[in-house]
Amino acid sequence: MSSEDASKVEEAPRAVDMRSDTVTKPTDEMRAAMAAAPVGDDVYGDDPTVNRLQELAAEVRATYLAWNVASWPGRGSGLP
Questions:
Q1: Band of the pLDDT at 36, cuts 50, 70, 90?
Q2: Is the separation of the CB atoms in 26 and 34 below 8 Å?
Q3: Residues 6 or more apart in contact with residue 18 via CB below 8 angstroms
Q4: Is the CB of residue 16 less than 8 Å from the CB of residue 24?
Q5: Which of 8, 21, 23, 50 can bridge 42 by disulfide, Cβ–Cβ 3.0-4.6 Å?
C-alpha cells in the first residue's frame, strides 16, 4: 500500500467498554443531565422518563405486530 493510499484509510472507531457502570465513568455533562432529569416513582407511574420509554416500546411493538398481522399468515388469525 502506498503512503497516499494509507492516508485515505479511516481510523477505526474506539471501542466503548460497557460492561458495567463501575467501568464506564460519567462525564461532567452526563452528571449534569442526570441531576437535571425529571424524576418520580416508576412503581406509581410518576417517572416521566420511564413513562416515555414505555410509550415508545408500546409504539414499536404495535408497529411490529401490525406489520406481522398484515402479512399472509396473519390473515387467518381472526384478529380484526
A1: very high
A2: yes
A3: 24
A4: yes
A5: 50
